């Protein structure tokens, strides 16, 4: 039987909603069935981050070379640094029948939508804008001015949520993960239903 190509799962949403937190929780679960696509970035590693585990850390020059060679499925400039998804890894993993999981900001997700129409797009939403502000403040990695510009940006990003296949509210991390896992299972069932092999089943002589 022909192996079904893996899904491309894209998790996106505004800064501070909890994308990184939810992704880390999903990948810490022993039964996770997706492959995480490690992104390329020009930002410097933070304390505790490891090259080729958290990101492939690149110079600006090397990153621009990857762009010009068409090696990235998508890329975006975010707060002064480039971030991008390696194209070969995504294709090879999907071709091997494994699902690939991207955790990327919204500009990048828009590019993936154009290039991969059969992708599964999940928007992670905050319970409210005030809770989003609280999370950004609580993380303590940005100044007040940057937090305000992220909130302004988030208002625009929230308007884009209806372009996504699913909206998952990140009220509690565990619950958000459960919803994402349920969506992926449901999407597999839906896509397999329209696979040719089920039509072939009807030709069986029993
Ligand atoms: N477009 C795009 N965004 C990415 C990629 N990898 C990470 N990001 C996003 O870049 C943003 C900044 O990431 P990072 O510097 O690790 O900071 P943090 O996630 O806010 O702690 C986050 O919104 C990530 O989801 C990528 O490959 N492409
Ligand atoms: N469900 C949640 N409830 C409360 N706080 C959360 C939740 N999810 C994430 N956070 C916190 O919100 C902040 C932003 O989360 P982070 O994962 O860095 O967001 P993003 O990757 O979307 O920018 C972090 O301090 C994180 O611990």
Automatic annotation (TrEMBL):
- Which cellular component terms (GO) are annotated to the entry? cytosol
Which keywords belong to this entry?
ATP-binding, Cytoplasm, Kinase, Nucleotide-binding, Transferase
Which reaction is recorded as catalysed by this protein? GMP + ATP = GDP + ADP
Does the keyword S-adenosyl-L-methionine feature in the UniProt annotation?
Answer: no
Q: Which domain of life is it from?
A: Bacteria
**Which EC numbers does the record give?**
2.7.4.8
UniProt xrefs under NCBIfam families? guanyl_kin
Which family does the UniProt entry place this protein in? Belongs to the guanylate kinase family.
PANTHER family found in the cross-reference section: GUANYLATE KINASE (PTHR23117:SF13), GUANYLATE KINASE-RELATED (PTHR23117)
- Protein name stated in the entry: Guanylate kinase
SMART domains on file: GuKc (SM00072)
HAMAP family membership? Guanylate_kinase
Subcellular locations according to the entry: Cytoplasm
Does ATP-binding show up as a keyword for this record?
yes
Q: Which gene encodes it?
A: gmk
Q: What InterPro entries has UniProt attached to this entry?
A: GK/Ca_channel_bsu (IPR008145), Guanylate_kin-like_dom (IPR008144), Guanylate_kinase (IPR017665), P-loop_NTPase (IPR027417)
**Enzyme's top EC category:** transferase
User: Residue limits of the Guanylate kinase-like domain?
Assistant: 6-185
Instruction: Provide the primary localization.
Output: cytoplasm
Q: Where does ATP bind?
A: 13-20
